[in-house]
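Bumping with the actual sequence this time:
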Amino acid sequence: MKEVPISYVKANQTGIVVFVLLAFAFQWTWLVALLWLIQLLGLVSGGKWNLFVAVSKGFLSRSGIETQAAELTRFNNTLAVLFLTLSLASFAIGWSMVGYIFTGFLLLAAGAGLLGYCIGCTIYYQYKQFILRRE
């Protein structure tokens, strides 16, 4: 099973938190769009084109550290892209408050991840349990 260094996951979460806080503080919806692009590129490339990971690779160690399953990282990244897509769609139709709410959900998830609780992991686990019960 492929693994992703947790330091890369944390770098991505930190980038999300910083971008969202700046977008909230200055009401820069274009920054939400840029974050969506960064996350989408990371999703389609398996993390190789994620700007936050690329920038952090220069000073983060990969050896002897905690990892996360690549499948779980991909699931969490998919959730991030989903929330950002819903946010941008809301902004596009003039529902700014709804757009910020969806972006806020992503901020909460990334912030919780930085503090040690993976909301996406919990959702993923429950999803897998649901699938197993149906079989």
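The tokens above came from a reply further down the thread. The CA atoms of residues 4 and 61 lie 12 Å apart.
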